[in-house]
Structure formats: structure tokens, C-alpha cells
Amino acid sequence: MKKLLIxxxxxxxxxxGQNYQKGxxxxxxxxxxLSIDYFTxxxxxxxxxxxxxxxxxxxxxxxxxxxxxxxxxxxxxEIDDNIVSYNNRAYSYLQLRNYQLAILDYxxxxxxxxxxxxxxxxxxxxxxxxxxxxxxxxxxxxxxxxENFHIACLLGDPEGxxxxxxxxxxKEDLKPVDSDDFSTAQMREYxxxxxxxxxxxxxxxxxxxxxxxxYINFSLKxxxxxxxxxxxxxxxxxxVDYYELNYKIIRNEIFARHGYIFKSGGEMDxxxxxxxxxxxxxxxxxHLLSDIEKHNIQLIKQLEKSN
Length: 307
Known about the structure:
Helix content: 55-70%
Radius of gyration: 21 Å
Shape: globular
Structural class: mainly alpha
Number of helices: 18
Largest sheet: none
Oligomer: single chain
């Protein structure tokens, strides 16, 4: 079971020009193809405006074009590192079943406490949405999701209570709760104290179950995100720290996934031969590397030198 939620955070209706206004009107009318056309025109005139990439990304999301939405959210983040784009990109990653990157982006949102407080004044459900979605991601990865549904329940979400109370695994760790036990004032206090603290301290390594067909823990299938996501330094540092990864291993894993043959008996040879997915075939795989992989390899090398 999974509950897919997104908080569509409103971009202030600042007069960026006629193209923006028309695009915004078409977006509100759910005419996403037309809104994309006008937002693109607005971006061509003002390419450094992060808000324009957010609303065009939301239009792509409306058409279920999540890869294009992610591209726009990422561009917006590069411009001003805003919380809205992290939140919306996390949802698109969730829709694409890239649960680890979704969790990473939600953690970025939770770290921006001051921005989160301001946004919660306009959108009180933001923390509920985040914890529900993190719980969904962890559930699909076979990780401990109980705390996140528990927090959503304590924040007043009936579905969070329902999910938390349903699973016996959660009941073993935490006492079942009823959201009616908490007053609005108590929930508001819980929002920015316990919630954020717990969300950033819950272990993600506790494996509760594994679906053998799909979405198993990344330690079994490899750290594939380095082939699909162009990491920034900040993202990669957080990811490695969060999952307790090793820079040398994730760099060489890029080569291993292409079938690179490591030095016989060496550290990497022994490590990757223990992985069921590793099939050594080639002495040189440089021609197989994508631009994303080349970028990530260079970034990992830089971080290896500084650690």
C-alpha cells in the first residue's frame, strides 16, 4: 500500500511578464501543454528566474512527465537552492520509484527549518505530506517506516494513524496512537521540534522486509543512482553520509555495472565478485560511460581527495 502525496507550493504571482501570466492561468486551468509553452517563452526571456522553472516543472508533473519536471526543479535548485524545488523534485522521484533520491530531497527540505516554518503557515500539511511520502519510500525499500507514519499520525493525519496502527511491526516498537489525543497547539509545537529531530535521526538501515521482485535495498542491487542522477557536491556528500557509503566503492561501482574487469585478487575484484549483479566482461569500458557517469566519477574523485 502506498499513498502518493505532493504539496504544490504556490509561486508568488509576481508580474514576470505576459508570458508568465498566461502560463500561470493555463496551469490553473489544467491546460498544461499551453502553460509549458508560455513558461518556456518566459524562461527564454529570464533564464535565471528559479520560479519559472518551478511552475514549468509543475506543468510537466501535471502531464506525468516527471523526468522533465525533475530537470526543471534541478535547474531551479542550481539557481537559488530553494525548498520548493527540493520538495517537488522528491515527489517526482517517488513517482519514478527512485525512493532513495526522494528521501534525500525530503531530508534537504527538513533541514531548511526556517523556510519550512514559513511555508507551513501557508500550507500546514507540509510535514504530514513529507512524513507520509518518506514512509512510502521506506516501505518500498523494505526499511523501517514506522516512525514516519507515527509522526504523520501525531500531526493529525488520519491516514497516517491508519497505516501506523495497521502494521504489527510498528505496534511492536511504538504504542498505537489516536490523532484526536493531540490538540492543535500540541501539534504545532510537535511540528518543529520532535518531528524534524526524529526525521533526521531515524535509522534507514533497519531492513524489515524485502520484495524479491522489485525495490529491494540498494546494498543488494548496487548504488545505481550514480548512473541516472547528476549529483551536486552537496547532494553526494549528504547521500554518502546518510547511507554510510564508501566513495571508492561507489566510484568503482560505476565501472562494475558496465562489466569492467578489475585486477584479479584485488580489493575491488573481491568486493564486486560478491555481488550477484556483477558480470565482468571488459578491460575497457570508457566508451560505455554516459555524461552523467563521467560527471559523477570526477566529483567522487574530488571528494575522495578531501576525505
